[in-house]
Amino acid sequence: MTATTTDTVDPVNSVHPVHPGHAVHADNPVLRVAPAAPAEAAAHFRASLAFHADVSDVAAALAAGGDPGFVVLDSRSTESWDQGHIPGAVHLPTALVPEQAGELLDRSVPVVTYCWGPGCNGATRAALALAELGYQVKEMLGGFEYWAREGFPYETWEGRAQGTADPLTAPVDAADCGC
After folding, report:
1. How confident is the model over 67-88, as pLDDT tens digits?
2. pLDDT-based confidence at residue 177 (cuts at 50, 70, 90)
3. Sign of the four-CA dihedral 113, 115, 117, 122
4. Which of 141, 34, 140, 122 is nearest to 75 (CA)?
5. CA distance linking residue 44 with residue 38, whole number of Å
């Protein structure tokens, strides 16, 4: 059932105000809570880009040659690092950030953290620890999983490796995804 109300509280969920002319969609799980106003949405997504970078953008910046203007930090364990990591990344497990960041990182250079993948919050915890120490930091969305799934080269304890792009995560026959 769809109802339109004036500027009141959503009568179905009491979660988000309903603005004049906006419908309440009680039976629609996507629209049950109304989307944010465009200005609020723009502020949110602008802020999100200040906190996150995606795998393709990190790979493109690193592949461009020269100084990318940031350092990539792998926040996983030594065993995970040995299985595979981004070439040129700094290895600093999350738990060691407070005591070793000052020895390995320059506070004037932004840091991009990563861990295993979307199901792991190690990169988020490392980014938090770095921010609390005064570093500019972003988290790489997708982590090492998506780095490898998108077919970018990586290093292991045995040497350099590279898989083929997974067609569910990256274009197979295009230079970029067009995002």
Report:
1. 999 999 999 999 999 999 999 9
2. low
3. negative
4. 122
5. 10
Residue 74's nearest CA partner among 160, 155, 161 is: 155
Greater confidence (115 vs 33) lies with 115
Pairing status of strand 17-18 against strand 8-9: antiparallel
DSSP 85: B
Cα separation, 148 vs 114, in Å, equals 13
The pair phi, psi for residue 66, each rounded to 5°, is 75, -165
Beta strands in the chain, from DSSP E residues, in sequence order: 2-4, 8-9, 17-18, 23-25, 52-54, 71-74, 90-91, 111-114, 137-141, 154-156, 159-161
- Residue 130 near residue 97 (C-beta atoms within 8 A): yes
pTM value surpassing 0.70: yes
Is the model more confident about 19 or about 28?
Answer: 28
